[in-house]
């Protein structure tokens, strides 16, 4: 029921249509899920934490079958998957998708209608046909090994998850150092740029949507500076909605900027 999305502080989810048959479902003003409605079925990109009833919100917009797809495996993007019996994501994303951020959140997840939802794998180059609307899958794993971007031919947007946004990309992999992560991120941004003729805007999961695809070029330049050690380091790691921090994943962290791009990464 939609009333499950109302708390004393207001709605858990907001919604707005930013392109024809394309909806932003905004969780607490900080995280964006996207609903793409085709002629035959709809595609939901990410599901937030599973709080409230995102499925009721989706079904208030469309009665078409819904294909739940994830940009990556972090639980703030997969927590609501268990409202549906199946979901699509990369194989790497599937390793984390059902792991909540803490025992209380895990308990709530386990009580959802489909905590054992079936997972189907998506791969680089796959094309999802929604009926009169096609979405191309592009593998861009860095922030998370299993990150996927989705290029939609109707809205002409690329849905980038946490790998590209206007606030900052968190290079938080523990298996790579800062320069290795920046090099990998640069390679992925160049891969997205090679598809530039297929989209006009970028729709991230946080911190503004849609945004200019100029951010892709800015991140390529920033990544190159981090690799070369010439980046402009900012005075703190402050981001949208949280206090300045100087550690990330148990390691000292710093933030660097170039144009509109900002990245937070570990310091050895």
Descriptive account of the structure:
The chain has 268 residues and is an alpha+beta fold. It folds into two domains: 1-163, Metallo-beta-lactamase, Chain A; 172-201 and 212-268, no CATH class. The chain contains six helices and 20 strands. The protein has a six-stranded mixed sheet. It has a five-stranded mixed sheet with strand order 3-4-5-6-7. Strands 14, 17, 18, 19 and 20 form a five-stranded mixed sheet that branches.
In short:
The protein has 268 residues and is of the alpha+beta class. The chain has helices spanning 54-59, 75-78, 91-94, 103-110, 178-193, 214-228; strands spanning 6-7, 10-11, 13-19, 22-27, 31-37, 42-45, 66-69, 86-89, 118-121, 127-129, 134-139, 148-152, 157-161, 169-170, 201-204, 211-212, 232-233, 247-248, 251-258, 261-266.
Global mean pLDDT: 92
**CATH topology assignment of the largest domain:** Metallo-beta-lactamase, Chain A
Strand content: 25-35%
- Judged by helices, strands and strand pairing, the structural class is alpha+beta
CATH H-tier superfamily of the largest domain:
Ribonuclease Z/Hydroxyacylglutathione hydrolase-like
Radius of gyration: 18 Å
Major β-sheet, in short?
A: 6 strands, mixed
Question: How many distinct folded domains?
Answer: 2
In sequence order, what are the helices and strands, one letter per element? EEEEEEHEHEHHEEEEEEHEEHEEEE
Top-tier CATH class of the largest domain: Alpha Beta
Number of helices: 6
- Let me know the number of strands: 20
């Amino acid at each position: 029921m939609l009333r499950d999305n109302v708390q004393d502080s207001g709605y858990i989810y907001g919604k707005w249509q930013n392109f024809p048959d394309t909806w932003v479902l905004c969780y607490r003003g900080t995280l964006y899920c996207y609903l793409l409605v085709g002629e035959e079925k709809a595609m939901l990109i990410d599901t937030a934490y599973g709080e409230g009833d995102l499925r009721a919100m989706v079904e208030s917009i469309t009665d078409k079958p819904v294909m739940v797809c994830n940009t990556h495996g972090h639980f703030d993007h997969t927590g609501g998957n268990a409202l549906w019996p199946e979901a699509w994501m990369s194989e790497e994303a599937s390793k984390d998708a059902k792991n909540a951020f803490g025992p209380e959140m895990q308990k709530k997840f386990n009580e959802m209608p489909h905590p054992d939802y079936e997972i189907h794998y998506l791969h680089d180059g796959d094309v999802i046909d929604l009926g009169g609307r096609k979405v191309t899958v592009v593998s861009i794993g860095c922030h998370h090994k299993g990150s996927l971007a989705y290029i939609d031919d109707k809205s002409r947007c690329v849905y980038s998850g946490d790998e590209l946004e206007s606030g900052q990309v968190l290079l938080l992999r523990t298996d790579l150092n800062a320069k290795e992560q920046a090099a990998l991120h640069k390679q992925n941004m160049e891969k997205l740029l090679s598809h530039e003729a297929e989209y006009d805007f970028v729709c991230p999961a946080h911190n503004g949507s849609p945004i200019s695809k100029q951010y892709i070029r800015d991140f390529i330049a920033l990544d190159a500076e981090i690799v070369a050690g010439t980046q402009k380091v900012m005075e703190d790691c402050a981001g949208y909605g949280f206090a300045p921090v100087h550690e990330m994943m148990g390691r000292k962290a710093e933030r660097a900027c170039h144009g509109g791009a900002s990245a937070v990464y570990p310091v050895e």
